[in-house]
Amino acid sequence: MRKAILFFIAPFGVLFTLFYLIPIGYAVWQSLFTVERTGTFGPAREVFGGLTQYRQVFDDGPFWQSVGRVLLFGVVQVPVMLGLALFLALLLDSGLVKGRRFFRLAYFLPYAVPGVVAAIMWGYLYSPNLSPFTAVTSNADLLSPSLVLWALANVVTWVYVGYNMLIIYSALLAVPAEIYEAAKLDGAGVFRTAWSIKIPMVMPAIVLTTVFSIIGTLQLLAEPQVFRSFSSAVSSTYTPNLTVLSAAGIPNFHLAAAFSVVLALATFVLSFSFLKFTQRKGVQ
Amino acid sequence: MAGFRVPRYAAMLVMAVFTLYFLTPLWWLFVASGKKDGQVTEGRALLPDNFALGDNLAGLFRYNDGVFLRWMLNSIAYTVGAAALGTLLAGMCGYALAKYVFRGRELIFNLVLGGVLVPATALALPLFLMFSQAELANTFWSVFLPSLVNPFGVYLGRIYAAASVPDELLEAARIDGSGEVRSFFTLAVRLMAPAFVTIFLFHFVAVWNNFMLPLIMLGNERLFPVTLGLYSWNSQVNQHPELRALVLVGAFVSIVPMVIAFLSLQRFWRSGLGAGSLK
């Protein structure tokens, strides 16, 4: 039995250790070092710097601006996206819609488009001189500093609404039919049934999709990176991950490692506190 | 509120509006990839006009010694290989966590769950440093090996194994003299088949879409996955305008395999996707 257990777990365990646990440890280790030079052109030496890099991270204005930016993005985009996903899932499940198979597929299809490709496509649709929707793009510059964040939010929403809808919809399908019978006898309408029965029943699915969306938001990289060639408003430190990338490009790997560690910790704290919050509220 | 009825046409109208939102950009991409020389504003924007998709495709596959085909094959190798092997490993691990009681089981499960929450991009940089030290950065393996690990697959595998493989069946197999490993491959794998397809699909999409790892790891254009290749073309469009047509038709071609995979695996993702959130 022990041999069998080892046989099942070891292959994944070894890879998980090599490519998850060790890199995390290595990033923490690297972030504790700093490069010193004697004079401007002296040879570089790596010396233990303790929390020096972290002091730099906390003093780094653009980094915290980028964190603020993705938080603002998340506070707006995640509820809008999941609200839409829930609304469409409830509509699909309401019995009012014909051709459910078609809609399910049509809405899920954008999920097949990689972030890079979706961003290239929408970048063209937004560009005033390339877009087919000139009525919109000639009146509002969607790639301007004030709007480009929401233009990006639309790209992410477009890709993930259908995916989240499907997760919620599958959870709705698993609700036993008897539960609806009682509601019907009580004369509850579509809205009442959705609000009092369906939404509470699919709350675990909504919690799961929220956690994944929080993680995804903090990791925004491909879409803003692509948008840099469409809009000068997207700087090289627009999101935290872009900041990591540009610190690594200097190259200052120790600082970049410290950024990664702070970012991973922030993600942990946010997704854990969201889970704890929902548990305390009795959603489980 | 009670008894208020929503008319069917209103519901259908809402569904139709969202269908337009989701499908119009894809339709535009199809039309744009057929425009001559990437002149997307020439002629009708949303209807094929002087459709030159064939010429553009020929140009795409000829450009730079057919580097685009190479990128597509790279993507398929990274994705299919990592997803197939990764799904098997995650499924085995999830199965063991569901079906055996042993010391350290909860510790392992919690570590893996923590792994689900680690932003994959926070791993990319330390992985690059480690692979550089081993002089393996900028190789096929530097992208392929890290892509094998799928902690969410282990989580799903455990839930599915607990729900779909009865203990009595394994016990009966034991009495018949079947070894544990054989029971897994002959019995459990079959019962968990829908789970395996779901894990595979999630893993496939994650690796296919992965951008930061190849961006950091790879310098050699011949090793790029198609996403990174299209990104590099798109960022050179201002200097090389002739690349615009290639970016558009390339973007269109790059989503075709995924769309085919989604259509042909429909039966599985339709039923399987929600299962991760039920427990």
Describe this structure as you would to a colleague.
The complex is a heterodimer of chains A (284) and B (279). Chain A is mostly helical. Helices cover 71% and strands 4% of the residues of chain A. Chain A has helices at 2-30, 52-59, 61-93, 100-108, 115-126, 134-137, 148-173, 177-185, 190-201, 203-218, 222-227, 240-249, 253-280, and strands at 33-37, 44-48. In chain A, strands 1-2 form a two-stranded antiparallel sheet. In chain A, a hairpin with a 6-residue loop joins strand 1 (33-37) and strand 2. In chain A, helix 5 (115-126) crosses helix 7 and helix 10 (203-218) runs antiparallel to helix 13. Chain A is globular and about 85 Å long. In chain B, 73% of the residues lie in helices and 0% in strands. The model of chain B has no long low-confidence stretch (mean pLDDT 88). Chain B contains 13 helices and no strands. The relative contact order of chain B is 0.14. With 279 residues, chain B is an all-alpha fold. At the A-B interface, helix 1, helix 4, helix 5, helix 7 and helix 9 of A face helix 1, helix 2, helix 3, helix 4 and helix 8 of B.
Rounded to the nearest angstrom, the distance between the terminal CA atoms of chain B is 32 Å
**Strand line-up in the sheet with most strands of chain A:** 1-2
Helix content of chain B: over 70%
Strand tally of chain A is: 2
What multimeric state do the chains show?
A: heterodimer
**Number of helices, counting only DSSP H or I runs of 4 residues or more of chain B:** 13
Largest interface: A-B, 100 and 99 residues
| Category by helix and strand content of chain B | mainly alpha
Radius of gyration of chain B: 23 Å
Largest beta-sheet details of chain A = 2 strands, antiparallel
Average residue pLDDT of chain A: 89
Order of helices and strands of chain B: HHHHHHHHHHHHH
- The global form of chain B is globular
How many helices of chain A does DSSP assign? 13
Rg of chain A, Cα atoms, Å: 24 Å
What percent strand of chain B? under 5%
What is the average of the pLDDT values of chain B? 88
Helix proportion range of chain A: over 70%
